[in-house]
Amino acid sequence: MRLRAYPKLFLFLMAILLPGICFSTPYYGASLSVPAVTSEPSTLHGYQLMLNYDPQRFQWRQFNIYFDGGFSHFTTDTAYQSAINIYSIAPVVRYTFKKHGPFLPFLEFSIGLAYLNHTRFENRNLGMHFAFQDRLGIGTLLGGSNQLSVGVHALHYSNAHLASHNAGITMPVVLDVGYRFQ
Q1: Rounded average pLDDT over 140-169
Q2: Which of 36, 71, 76, 79 could join 43 via S-S bond, C-beta 3.0 to 4.6 A?
């Protein structure tokens, strides 16, 4: 691409993005999740409380990007280090199968950053305080204004081998319910 074409490309992108940036109303929401099936460690239970921010700026057809951040508290029934708190923040990519209606099924995935207050959990060496939070899920938005969401997702925390130990925490089935404020 020639150097003279960059201003035209910039103006074209601004013409597409500016109406969404200036005239869209952001949404705020909250969701509560509980693990239903756990695998690493198998005796895990607890909850995850996430706050969501959807600026409505990052939409393309049926894809949307929103942001969530939150707090997770998980425990086990063992005598070892049996509790861990996790603080996380992540962008979430959501594909909604339908654009309108009282029932909008979606598929979403996310890779974000997390801070773990301990490097050991149960008898597992997590390696370091920082980890990645990986999430893949399905769900639906419900109601006339799509304010309620229910879903199920898989959740995994690990440091991606950035430390010498990387035991990770895995929950293959996590149930969640959320509410979007308008």
Answers
A1: 91
A2: 76
Number of C-beta neighbours around residue 68 at 10 A = 23
Asked, for residue 5, whether it belongs to a domain, the answer is no
> At which residue do the structure tokens 């099936």 appear?
37
Checking if the pLDDT of 153 tops 80, the result is yes
Give the separation between CA 159 and CA 81, rounded to whole angstroms: 19
CB proximity list for 142: less than 8 A, separation 6 or greater:
102, 103, 104, 148, 149, 150
CATH number at residue 33: 2.40.160.20
Residue 8 maps to a domain: no
- Domain-located, residue 105: yes
Closest CA to 112 of 64, 156, 74: 156
Higher per-residue confidence, 83 vs 88: 88
Query: By residue range, what is the domain housing residue 156?
Result: 25-181
Instruction: Please state, in angstroms and rounded to a whole number, the distance separating the CA atoms of residues 101 and 143.
Output: 8
**């890779």: which residue's tokens?**
111
Query: Nearest CA to 77 among 116, 38, 115?
Result: 38
Q: pTM of the full predicted structure?
A: 0.80
Give the mean pLDDT of the chain: 86
Tokens of 84: 């861990």
Beta bridge partners of 67: 53, 91
